[in-house]
Amino acid sequence: TEFFIHHEDVLRGEGQVGPQRQVSPELEAALWGQLTKTARLMLAKLDCGVVLVAPGYGRKAVKRPSDVGTAVLTGAPGELTLAVSGRARAAAIHLSGPEDATAHVSSAL
């Protein structure tokens, strides 16, 4: 996961989405497996619920809902990995949910 993140940092430069490379299904599956194990810790300080959705790989609630609501991050496992690692500006993800929750996630990531 660490090598993937740093590799994408080099490819994408300073906070711009793209250029996205083709990532093998095996790597995406490995990233999804790691992300679903570590995202809860990485997002512990958020004051809203978080659900990660990777079409074709699954859906995982990683933070319980709060009064603010739950934000849903949707994207490929590699893109979600980048977003949860603090690189959301460079990740091709879709953020949805209540305005307060999405604003909170946007400012934190």
What is the compact description of this entry?
The chain is 46% helix and 18% strand. The protein contains four helices and four strands, in the order ααβββαβα. Helix 2 (25-42) runs parallel beside helix 3.
Structure overview:
The protein has 109 residues and is α+β, with helices and mostly antiparallel strands. Helices cover 46% and strands 18% of the residues. The protein is built from four helices and four strands. It has helices spanning 2-12, 25-42, 77-87, 99-108, and strands spanning 49-54, 58-63, 70-74, 94-96. Strands 2-1-3-4 form a four-stranded mixed beta sheet. Strand 1 and strand 2 form a beta hairpin. Helix 2 runs parallel beside helix 3. The longest helix is centred in the N-terminal third of the chain and has 18 residues, at 25-42. It is globular. The protein starts with a helix and ends with a helix.
Give structural attributes.
single chain, 18% strand, alpha+beta, 4 helices, four-stranded mixed beta sheet, 109 residues
Overall form: globular
Q: Main sheet, how many strands, which sense, barrel?
A: 4 strands, mixed
Order of helices and strands: HHEEEHEH
Mean pLDDT equals 91
Beta-strand content:
15-25%
Structural class by SSE content: alpha+beta
Widest beta sheet: strand line-up: 2-1-3-4
- Which range best describes the helical content: under 10%, 10-25%, 25-40%, 40-55%, 55-70% or over 70%? 40-55%
* End-to-end Cα distance: 17 Å
Whole-angstrom Rg:
13 Å
Number of strands: 4
- Outline the low-pLDDT stretches: none
The number of helical segments is 4
